[in-house]
Amino acid sequence: MFENLSEKLERSFKLLKGQGKITEINVAETLKEVRRALLDADVNFKIAKTFTETVKEKALGQDVLTAVKPQQMMVKIVHDELTDLMGGVSTDINIKANPSIILIAGLQGSGKTTFSGKLANLLKTKRGKKPMLVAGDVYRPAAINQLQVLGEQIGVPVFTQEGSKNPVQIAKDAIRDAKQKGCDVVIIDTAGRLAVDEEMMNEISAVKKAVDPHEILFVVDSMTGQDAVNTAKEFNDRLDFDGVVLTKLDGDTRGGAALSIRSVVNKPIKFVGTGEKMDALDVFHPSRMADRILGMGDIVSLVERAQEQFDAEEARKLQKKLQKNQFDFNDFLSQIQQIKKMGSLKDLASMIPGMGKAIKDMDFDDDAFKGIEAIIFSMTPDERANPAIINGSRRKRIAAGSGTSIQEVNRLLKQFEDTRKIMKMAGQGKNLTRALAGMQPGRRP
Predict the structure, then answer these.
(1) Domains in the chain and their CATH numbers?
(2) Model-level pTM?
(3) What angle do CA 45, 47, 53 make, to 5 degrees?
(4) Are 218 and 236 spatial neighbours (Cβ–Cβ below 8 Å)?
(5) Residue 400 CB partners (closer than 8 Å, separation 6+)
(6) Tag placement on the chain: N or C end, fewer CB within 10 Å?
(7) At a CB cut-off of 8 Å and minimum separation 6, what does 431 contact?
(8) CB-based contacts of 398: which residues, under 8 Å, 6+ apart?
(9) What is the mean pLDDT of residues 339-365?
(10) What is the pLDDT of residues 297-321, one digit of tens each?
(11) Residue 71 DSSP SS3
(12) How far apart are CA 214 and CA 16, in angstroms?
């Protein structure tokens, strides 16, 4: 996410390295590179120009403390301005009414249907709501089928009217059905087009007028850059939507949409999609995103994700096993599965301060977990509970059963032993420095 922009901004800040103070000359040189980095990221030209002018004005107006280096001060100012550019604070959706009606709009292929499912899942699992999904795309049977599959996957009812070509009537009937079934949030997935056209605008405007939604969310494919911003403006002029959703932010996005859209439509970004899984949806926090753009990581979001997967009872059991040196492959597998639920490895690594540049050229293979799981699942219950009994012949059988090589099985056993040593010392509250120093870095499982 934003790796190229992050790298270019970091290079621009280095122009101030070693400078005794901020001056007109060194600020001009730095901000010239900052502007270029923003334009390369597909940020709107006027926004990039205004942004750098504001940063320059604040930088030259600062009484820099002797303890703060010019480079550090510039990073702080850019961070604050990026945060402000993206809205300053997070903005929640309006779900106070019963039922709350949420209308989802956007172009075809932007990820509307997937987002609808993710939003329903988030409201159900994190907000204690009872949502209903509504298949309002009457032109694409595949969209209706996709919504039904997602609804079944997350345990949320989906309202459909087979054969109906009237999205307004579908929406009205869905709300009536939701009230009868006690659903307190109705999420209406609407039809999209490959480009904005009058027919589509008239149709979604009619749905809006008929159901008077409490929240209208516009879904944007963040990988389309300025095209997404221009489309958002056209939709907002007609719909006056309440917020923006950026999808596919885990892809090779340049960042232009995230940095431009707030200023162009004057509406907040409310959610960002960070993967294909149903729980890969985050509330948008401008300050945290600025942290990640500047390579500072996002520890708060990382901790929040970890807490969501944290099971206090399981943690207590694991603590007791660690104290008795009983950590086995069943526990190892459980830890891996919890990490998988937190998101992609690259996304998690990007949340760690200082990792932005380091991960740029690294090849993160989330499928590697599948290989580890396959090896563990190929072990017998006794082998999982007592790894010490896994001799040469057992390793050969496990490799054959998991479709891996004996070398891969050996690597996993070595990694397991290293992990067990660290976990044991952590459980006993000992200093881990010596143990960690003895581990061989960079080893693959």
Answers:
(1) 3-85 (1.20.120.140), 100-295 (3.40.50.300), 303-438 (1.10.260.30)
(2) 0.67
(3) 105
(4) yes
(5) none
(6) C
(7) 425
(8) 375, 378, 379, 383, 390, 409
(9) 56
(10) 545 555 555 555 555 566 566 566 6
(11) helix
(12) 48
